[in-house]
Amino acid sequence: QVQLVESGGDLVQPGGSLRLSCAASGSIFRINAMGWHRQAPGKQRELVAFITEGGSANYADSVKGRFTISRDNAKNTIYLQMNSLKPEDTAVYYCNAYIFSTRWGTREYWGQGTQITVSA
Q1: Nearest C-alpha neighbor of 70 from the set 21, 10, 30
Q2: How far is the C-alpha of 85 from the C-alpha of 1, rounded, in Å?
Q3: What is the pLDDT along the chain (120 residues), one digit of tens a residue?
């Protein structure tokens, strides 16, 4: 099976910075699109950013100019650099990916989530 493991969640003050990592492991032939979603208490899960295999990045309007997604294909890992953090960024952040393997074909996978809390 494929596993996605997030790391980097923490408590940070407004205006601070944080970097999240998500590493994929297991039966991987090719990783297609990979990205981050978040879910705040009482709200629906929303897309934050995603990046294609070729490195094309897309962002939610609420994080444009503050967050940067990147990808290291050799390590099967993506990162989310989060700058100028605001209290409204507080949420559980989830990594997700579409991954092809010869055993199971193309499937969508989700990580367990990591908590980001932005508070003074």
Answers
A1: 21
A2: 34
A3: 889 999 999 999 999 999 999 999 988 888 889 999 999 999 999 999 999 988 899 999 999 999 999 999 889 999 999 999 999 999 999 999 999 888 889 999 999 999 999 998
